[in-house]
Structure of Deoxyuridine 5'-triphosphate nucleotidohydrolase:
Amino acid sequence: MDDSQLEVLVQRLDPDLPLPSYAHPGDAGADLVTTVDVTLAPGERAMVPTGIAIALPAGFVALVHPRSGLAARHGLSIVNTPGTVDAGYRGEIKVMLINHDPREPIELRRGDRIAQLVIQRFERAAFVDVAGLPESVRGDGGYGSTGGFSSTVSTSE
Ligand SMILES: O=c1ccn([C@H]2C[C@H](O)[C@@H](COP(=O)(O)OP(=O)(O)OP(=O)(O)O)O2)c(=O)[nH]1
Ligand SMILES: [Mg+2]
């Protein structure tokens, strides 16, 4: 496994809480924690502070993803998933959590791991204004043009 690592500067705004950390070698997501206790009623959302600010190298972005275990067990997700942390952003990383469970509240405690940060390279596009686009096999087919679930009955036939 390639163990080369990108150095990312982290300012801990809450020194009692840990740096983002990967649970296993090779993981893509480094877990983020909440600095506060928060209870989310069914359907409720909240902007939750993580206690860290970062400085990414140019050409990188940090994406804030939900944790699948919390999603599967409790319906906890992120409103704007994945959240985009720009390389120039120096403020505190916050996570816009939402409780999708229709019945149960979700109680989070300070220090709980609530989300994961995935750091990626990205391309900056030069958007070129043209009158027409090159042809492709897919063309403008989308939104289920290749079919859906096996049980789905097509309404267009
Ligand atoms: O889940 C998120 C998403 C964003 N941010 C921070 C970092 C990001 O660089 C900044 C702006 O995010 P975005 O561009 O998604 O929001 P916007 O509504 O377009 O705000 P702006 O006008 O400031 O760009 O907010 C977070 O801390 N967490
Ligand atoms: Mg923006």
About this structure: The helical segments are 68-74. Residues 59 and 125 are 12 Å apart (CA to CA). The longest strand covers residues 113-121.
